[in-house]
Amino acid sequence: MKELTDAPFGINLPLLFLRDENMIRFVAESGVKFVTTSAGNPQKLIHILKEHDIIVYHAVPTVKAALKAVEAGVDGLVVEGGEGGGFKNPEEVSLLVLLQAIREKVDVPMIAAGGIVDGRGMAAAFAAGAEAVQMGTRFVSSKESPVHDNYKNAIIGAEDVGTVVLNKKSTPCIRALKTNKTLEIFEEGVMPKDMFAKIRDLYFGGDMEASAGLAGQSAALIHGQKSVAEIIEETVTGFHNICDRMGRFAKEKGF
Q1: Is residue 250 helix, strand or coil?
Q2: 72 close to 49: Cβ distance less than 8 angstroms
Q3: Which of 67, 113, 214, 220 matches a 20 to 30 Å C-alpha distance to 85?
Q4: Angle 74-175-19 (CA atoms, 0-180°, nearest 5)?
Q5: What is the per-residue pLDDT for 24?
Q6: pLDDT value at position 205?
Q7: For the chain, what is the radius of gyration of the CA atoms?
Q8: Are 18 and 46 within 8 A, CB to CB?
Q9: CA atoms within 13 A on the CB side of 144
């Protein structure tokens, strides 16, 4: 990344998959200034990052997890609603409810994640207490995304009920696009241990039945490939337009 850009960038550390402290120490000593942690409790490892003056945000799917993360000393939270794709909490809480519930309990900055693809979703998240948004599925389907067009087109073609949550009774629990394979697993209730063995065949080979194509419910709101620049510009512009409209309501004391 340092060879590719002079711009600042952050790193995500999924704690569940770290066997020891080596990776987190490597990141801490790399010069990176922003780290998000996920899939675990940051309490045991956060001191390594804070010793290097790194800003740490932890991804949380529940109020309980948020309180634990704040107690551990994180600087902010990535609040992940059940609408989002990828690894999920089996007890799904929607983003709108989760943001409000966490904001009642803590005052650290929150990044909203799950179900957001444009300015409307961003404005809704901000109204519920967020200071920023994170969009995964939207950027996976962008023009610059390196994944296969079959994967992008599956996201673009998905309906509002086009994803399914798998493996609720085991680990990891995930939200993925509906395919013959994922629907079969959904019916069985348990995901095979080798589920991700051929994930590259899906991501880069275009075989949508090779594994699970992770995606959020926001796929239903994506109607075509756009460049990253277009997505960001349209999202920010849409957000400000909605804020202007809401501001007029506030000024006029009406709606």
Answers
A1: helix
A2: no
A3: 67
A4: 50
A5: 86
A6: 97
A7: 19
A8: no
A9: 6
Q: Which two tokens mark 87?
A: 């690894």
Closest by Cα among 149, 183, 141 to 166? 183
Task: List, in order of start, the domains of the chain with CATH numbers.
Answer: 11-117+125-135 (3.20.20.70), 149-221 (no CATH)
Distance CA 129, CA 115 (A): 16
Give all strands of the β-sheet with 132-134 in edge-to-edge order. Answer: 11-14, 34-38, 55-60, 76-80, 110-113, 132-134
**Distance in Å from the first CA to the final CA of the chain:** 47
Rounded alpha-carbon distances, angstroms, from residue 103 to 38, 41, 90, 113 = 19, 20, 22, 15
CB 200 within 8 A of CB 160: no
**Residue positions counted in the chain:** 255
The order of strands in the sheet holding 163-166 is 86-88, 173-177, 163-166
DSSP reduced 3-state for 11 = strand
Residues of the chain with pLDDT under 70: none
Contact assessment for residue 68 and residue 44, using Cβ atoms and an 8 Å cutoff: no
Structure token pair of residue 99: 């943001």
Q: What is the pLDDT of residue 242?
A: 95
Burial of 178 (0-12, 13-18, 19+ CB in 10 A): middle
List the beta bridge partners of residue 77: 58, 110
Q: Residue 155: what pLDDT?
A: 97
Type of residue found at 233:
E
